[in-house]
Specification:
Layout lengths: L7 H13 L11 H40 L4 H11 L5 H10 L1 H12 L1
Amino acid sequence: MARVKRGTTANKRRKNVLKQTKGFRFGRNKKYRLAKDALRHAWEHAFTDRKTKKREYRKLWEIKISSGVREQGLTYSKFIPLLKKQGITLDRKILAELREKHPGTFQRLVEQVKQ
């Protein structure tokens, strides 16, 4: 019988794991067992941080909108319901961008909402 060489799948998996841990420190990029564990932790942090990033950006937008609205004599908590009541469907990201890059437009929007 001919000789059968095995382990191609396992070797491929190990090689892939080590490729993904490029740049890790202290043997976690060369030793398979350490690399696998480090990768598992890295993926957990990546998942939770994607959720955290959304939270942080929303907070930032709310702060920007709040500061812009306070200059006009309103508060954030009164401004958002007034927007909805008037049927203006701009999200917080767009409102924050208006406040930052187009203050005149934002001011006119606040004036329109106040009426």
